[in-house]
Amino acid sequence: MWGRLWPLFLSFLTATAVPGPSLRRPSRELDATPRMTIPYEELSRTRHFKGQAQNYSTLLLEESSARLLVGARGALFSLNARDIGDGAHKESCHLVPQTMVKDKGTGVSTSAHSFPRLQIRWEASPEMQSKCHQKGKNNQTECFNHVRFLQRLNTTHFYACGTHAFQPLCAAIDAEAFTLPTSFEEGKEKCPYDPARGFTGLVIDGGLYTATRYEFRSIPDIRRSRHPHALRTEEAPMHWLNDAEFVFSVLVRESEASAVGDDDKVYYFFTERATDEVPNSFAQSRNSHRVARVARVCKGDLGGKKILQKKWTSFLKARLICHIPQYEMLRAVCSLDADASARTHFYAAFTLTTQWKTLEASAICRYDLAEVQAVFAGPYMEYQDGARRWGRYEGGVPEPRPGSCITDSLRTRGYNSSQDLPSLVLDFVKLHPLMARPVVPTRGRPLLLKRNVRYTHLTGTPVTTPAGPTYDLLFLGTVDGWIHKAVVLGSGMHIIEETQVFEEPQSVENLVISPMQHSLYVGAPSGVIQLPLSSCPRYRSCYDCILARDPYCGWDPSTHACTVFSRSQGSRTALIQDMERGNRGCEGNRDTGPPPPLKTRSVLRGDDVLLPCDQPSNLARALWLLNGSMGLSDGQHGYRVGVDGLLVTDIQPEHSGNYGCYAEENGLRTLLASYSLTVRPATPAPAPQAPAMPGAQLAPDVRLLYVLAIAALGGLCLILASSLLYVACLQGGRRGRRRKYSLGRAGRAGGSAVQLQTVSGQCPGEEDEGDDGEGPGGLEGGCLQIIPGEGAPAPPPPPPPPPPAELTNGLVALPSRLRRMNGNSYVLLRQSNNGVPAGPCSFAEELSRILEKRKHTQLVEHLDESSV
Predict the structure, then answer these.
(1) Tag placement on the chain: N or C end, fewer CB within 10 Å?
(2) Spatial CA neighbour of 834 closest among 792, 777, 772
(3) How far apart are CA 145 and CA 161, in angstroms?
(4) Do 336 and 444 fall within a single domain?
(5) 58 bridge partner residues
(6) CA 781 → CA 518, 728, 757, 758, 846, distances in Å?
């Protein structure tokens, strides 16, 4: 028991040891609700792109040329960023230059800057795929060329890398012609083998900064290649990275306007095994949990001269905490304002899971760069061999400070590069890569917690509102193909809307924002989707516009519409917007939308009626008023308030009146539907009246014709009755001579008699029958039997009944031969083995017998309509 409770106890101690507000929040806050839900059928102004490829997971946006580059499985695409579904589709095969492309619509040859749609086929050869499959890899998913890296290399070329069936290759692509070169570069040091392996990469000043598990069985690594000084992380005497899965990397220009001459830094976000909390042995570390990390290196790092040669001398890493340290997994990270280090901050998406899988949720946390820098300036951890654990280092720290970049102060002391650092400093860096204090989120808690959602990717952009303040707008992709649009407010995060962007559930693998095109690009396995950053016309009234709290949207009193804010507008304060409170600004405005039409309902007393009322906002509460004043509550006087309207049961005269349905949200009340309900008394059904004799209104001659017709019909009935009586007497005289109707010879051994009997018919029991099995009615006790003749052997016995099965309501299944009765007379088929009726033939007795004998027979769902 203590072993099970220890992880929770440890998480509690870790949470309480972190400075700042408590990291735990009430459980009721674990279900943030998006205000609007937009299903796939209601999408508008979207653009789709799907080529002859799969896994469109790598996106690169070039705002200056309005191009969107897409890396997929076996292909590269260049799309028009203004409309990814537009443009001529031309394939540009590798090894064949193509500088001019003919537009499909106009037929005019244009350059690549005129936004044609270009494609490069870059697939692994069949030989490479066969070798990949021989290595035990999946030839349906893994043994292809998955493009994992796509960045601008210089003014003339892009740089792309692909897995190439577990033999990675890289290539410099001509940006103008969009073609592959005649030769490729080895990608083992730059791209992962496995297409599912975590990977991140950047091109910085011509150098390639990547982080992944490169080779087939190598350990994870952060490397710099295509640079005069290639560097990587240390592997001995301890690994700086322990089974790391990389999520994100970003360059922060900390040298810009730096007072101390600091260097630019590259930050990496990843998860790894928690070697700082368990002994560093394989038997225990393989079962340890994973933790989130942030690491950094200096862009100007050249490695050591004697110690840490071709290794990073500035590598440091720290713990990243969001909510529950022991049960969170880092999924995605984005950075905002990375060009201005003073305002740089990060947003990270975590998945929260518990040891018993009782709770799965997602959390969004924000981290300011200043807080990350403070952690890297703090105390270090060291690995204690005696305790076989990581512990806080309490000794002296050499100078210059290990892991720091070269600054103006160090240059004045003769340290012009990392190769000038003393051996004592490099030895310390080698053994102390981990910082003691964790990086905690801003405000000490998550900005958002969402139950039953797994975020896979996120991106954001700052938006300046008409009133002046700037808010961060985030887009969060889920594992099942939804996009959550959220804004960061002073009170936390507000989810403006959730949008289903793919009809078939699939994971969102990449998100890119284009403020210039006012678009969001979504990469997924099946294709790329282009969405507008805002849907302001969706809000029809002033109240609806400000309740959305979309930083792009504001109510324009002059046009009486919710419009998109543009910086080119002359008056920035003309639009009505209330981001923080979301309910002020429309008090004196009459643009509350047209009142809903009054609908009338007339219902009989004692009936039920549903008054529909659709709530467009998930955050609104339905409020029903009777005659403008009386509030209706659920379960009161026959009223049932639901999400789709008001249900009134067993209507009485006091239910008559005017009903109003209101949406009550954030202190505002909006009328959505109005009804006038009238209750009419239930009138009894009129008594049936005898039909009037037609002869009373006919002429005497016509009456005579009716009398003659009736007399003729009476005579015909008398003749028919006499004939039936004669036949009955004739059958009585032939008793004993022919007892049964048979086909062939009756009484054949092993024969069986099939008995037909109506449900309502009555047959006497065996005690009333004679030696021949004949009842008083003559025809086998009133039942017709068809006895097989000599032509065919006896059929095999029926199979045993199936095992007992219970219906969902707990009742034992009825026999399959029974049919639902709809007022018609049905025929019951019964079979006996000796030609004698098996027992009572009444429907009630036969039903009881069958239920007792075969009460475990399965109920057939789809009945054969041709059976009797």
Answers:
(1) N
(2) 772
(3) 9
(4) yes
(5) 71
(6) 88, 15, 10, 13, 16
Tokens of 746: 């009756």
Q: Domains in the chain: how many in total?
A: 3
Mean pLDDT of 273-287: 51
- What burial class does residue 635 get, using C-beta atoms within 10 Å of its C-beta: 0-12 exposed, 13-18 middle, 19+ buried? exposed
End-to-end CA distance of the chain: 64
Alpha-carbon distance 818 to 760, whole Å? 15
Domain that includes residue 319, residue range = 231-452
Last residue in a domain, options 428, 452, 476: 452
**Sequence-ordered strand ranges (E) for 153-289:** 157-162, 169-174, 185-186, 200-204, 207-212, 221-225, 245-252, 265-273
**Do residues 611 and 675 lie in contact, with contact meaning Cβ atoms separated by under 8 Å?**
yes
d(CA 153, CA 95): 19
Examine residue 542 and state whether it is found in any structural domain, yes or no. no
Give the whole-angstrom CA distance, residue 97 versus residue 417. Answer: 43
Are 6 and 355 a contacting pair, CB within 8 Å?
no
Got the DSSP string for 530-559? EEES--GGG--SHHHHHHHT-TTEEEETTT
**414: which residues sit within 8 A by CB, 6+ positions away?**
420
Record the tokens describing residue 383, joined without a space. Answer: 């690995």
In-domain check, residue 43: no
By the 10 Å C-beta count (0-12 exposed, 13-18 middle, 19+ buried), 15 is classed as middle
Please determine, for residue 156, whether its predicted confidence score (pLDDT) is greater than 70: yes
pLDDT in tens, 41-73: 999 899 999 998 999 999 999 999 999 999 999
Cα–Cα nearest to 748, from 704, 785, 793, 711: 793
Longest dimension (CA), the chain: 140
pLDDT at 381: 94
Q: Which of 436, 452, 468 corresponds to the end of one domain?
A: 452
Decide if pLDDT at 109 tops 70: no
Q: Nearest-CA neighbor of 548 among 465, 457, 645, 456?
A: 465
Order of all β-strands in the sheet with 328-336: 328-336, 345-353, 360-368, 448-451
Say what the alpha-carbon torsion angle 425, 429, 432, 436 is, to the nearest 10 degrees: 90
What's the CATH number where 602 sits? 2.60.40.10
3-state class (DSSP) for residue 576: strand
Closest CA to 460 of 440, 486, 494: 486
**842 and 755 assigned to the same domain:** yes
Could you report the per-residue pLDDT of 202-217, keeping only the tens digit for each? 999 999 999 999 876 6
Domain containing residue 327: CATH number: 2.130.10.10
DSSP string, 30-63: SB---SEEE-GGG--S-EEE--S-EEEEEEEEET
pLDDT at 136 over 60: yes
What is the C-alpha separation between 445 and 442, in angstroms, rounded? 7
Q: Mean pLDDT score of the chain, rounded to an integer?
A: 78
Q: Are residues 644 and 766 in the same domain?
A: no
388 Rama sector, left if φ>0, alpha if ψ -120 to 50, beta otherwise: left
Q: What gap in Å lies between CA 766 and CA 90, rounded to an integer?
A: 89
- Tell whether 382 is covered by a domain: yes
Residues 740-758: tens digit of each pLDDT: 333 333 333 344 333 433 3
DSSP state for residue 365 in the 8-state scheme: E
| CA–CA gap between residue 254 and residue 605 (Å, rounded) | 77
Using only C-alpha atoms, the chain has a radius of gyration, in whole angstroms, of 41
